[in-house]
Amino acid sequence: MSTGPLLFTRYAFPPNERGLCGPADSAALREYAVAGVTDPGLAALAARFAGAWPYLRLIAAANGIDDPLDARVVGAYWVGSSLLENARLAGYGTYLDDRFRRQAGRAWEPIAATIGAGAVPHHSFHVFCVYPWTGLLRDGHTEPSLHVLDSCRISWGRVVTADPLVVARCPLTWDGREIALGPPVPCQVAAGFVTGLGPGDWVSLHWNHVCDRLTPSQLRALRRYSARHLRLANAAAPPARNLLQLGTGQPAMVPAGPAAGRAR
Description:
The structure is a single chain. The protein is α+β, with helices and mostly antiparallel strands. It has two domains: 119 residues, no CATH class; 120 residues, SH3 type barrels. 47% of the residues lie in helices and 14% in strands. The chain is built from twelve helices and nine strands. The strands form three sheets. A five-stranded antiparallel beta sheet has the order 5-2-1-6-7. It has a two-stranded antiparallel ribbon with strand order 3-4. A hairpin with a 2-residue loop joins strand 6 and strand 7. The chain is globular and about 50 Å long.
């Protein structure tokens, strides 16, 4: 499971299974992950994640890497690495301007402000600064906004017990003004496609599924880039009524639940 396409699958499958992003054929994605096989079919599935794929291409191009599914690129997008800083310096703002300005309308300027303030093509930027959920939260729609933001970001936690699999992680909190990280809370999670977990292991999580074990350097990177974009979102979050569900072109109404629309 160390190849780039399979690493991408570990992170992308949980929301894809819920109908939140990517192609409708989540069963095929699961089969690849279980079998641990990489072939052109898996790469084709990954390319159909309309939100993540352009970011992968951007990171790869900025670092002189031919394959957007290179493991270094995939790890940079979901977890974080120095590759992101090269992408920021390589015209990230121009890329987003071309892709999102027309859809976002008046909501574009607050998004653009986060780019100038240091945003990079990390998954946490898209969750906190581009998605409509932060704006919905500020507009008074606490739920499901806070739940979706907390589930959709790549979080981290430490394994407490292996059977059942319980992880201590810091949930997002909302005080009416800012989103922050609360104290660690034990929660039961799914192992996803990661085996052999034991107490003390640090793991990454997406929609209550373990995605990977984290090395100390990966843990530091995930914390650092998540904190950066959380800080930018708190400083420049636009009101929900001006936002679009970017990637769909539809007005950002309050969804009926977390599974509303494939926005990524």
